[in-house]
Amino acid sequence: MExxxxxxxxxxxxxxxxxxxxxxxxxxxxxDESKALDQQAAQTRYQNLITQIEQQIPGIQQxxxxxxxxxxxxxxxNLQQIxxxxxxxxxxxxxxxxxxxxxxxxxxxxxxxxxxxxxxxxMRDIDNQKINALGDLNEDLADLDAAYAKxxxxxxxxxxxxxxxxxxxxxxxxxxxxxxQDRLKQQELENERAQQDRADKLAQxxxxxxxxxxxxxxxxxxxxxxxxxxxxxxxxxxxxxxxKTGGGGGGSRGSTKTKKKNTxxxxxxxxxxxxxxxxxxxxxxxxxxxAYLALIQAEVNNGGVTKSQINSVLNNSKYKFSKADxxxxxxxxxx
Length: 335
Prior knowledge:
By secondary structure, this protein is mainly alpha-helical. Helix content is 80%, strand content 5%. It is built from eight helices and three strands; from the N terminus they run H-H-H-H-H-E-E-H-E-H-H. The chain has helices spanning 2-23, 25-54, 57-89, 95-183, 188-244, 286-302, 307-314, 323-333; strands at residues 255-261, 268-274, 305-306. A three-stranded antiparallel sheet has the order 1-2-3.
């Protein structure tokens, strides 16, 4: 009989432990979702930083080309002055004249070489900034992995401890209940009291599960609030930057439109601008969202986009825009 008590109690307690541990699996799921969001945020920060770094390159190239042209023009002007002076002295074909021209070429070569060195140093600095940005990203991701591993280990330990407590409690209760039923079948009142005690414990456990579930839902709401806040801050930052680059008139909420003459066709076109950027959750798939981001970048680069440019992107089948996606983008631009 004792062996039968042990076998039945162990089976019952093991099932209770597994069910309870399964009920806490949402804790691990929450960690996975939080880690994914943090990794996405780190990648976004990295991409934004790389974009900012690469925006320095056109300025460096323009400065080099401008200074190189100036150095060449200065060389030619000096050569003209040398030739004029040598002719006036009557020594333009003699060794002195050749030496003066050579010195002028050497000076130009040195100046041009300094410009090349400065250009290469600036480009190396750009590369170093990118390397540093990548290093920061890897460090952030490593920190996230370490924090995730630590939290996961602690959560698994917590679930295991809770499961063992449930097992021990359930085993003891069930074992005692078996003994109680066999020994005191005639004592109906005591049996009902034991059952009530067990029911109370199960009710307490159910309350604890609901409490933990509520804590989890509260965490999700807090995470959503923080995500919404981050999105609003991003929109505000974009709006501020957009206003600095110039405004316009007309359009719907969140957009402006102006008239601009096309230098190629000579025709006047309506140029649309937006004051915010929608978040990924607003789109049905990643292809459509990436194409949308490219459209926003084109607007930033060119000071606006035309209706035909917007429609060209939306109607391109490879971007997989849904009807809802297209409607949201058109509404944003007021077309």
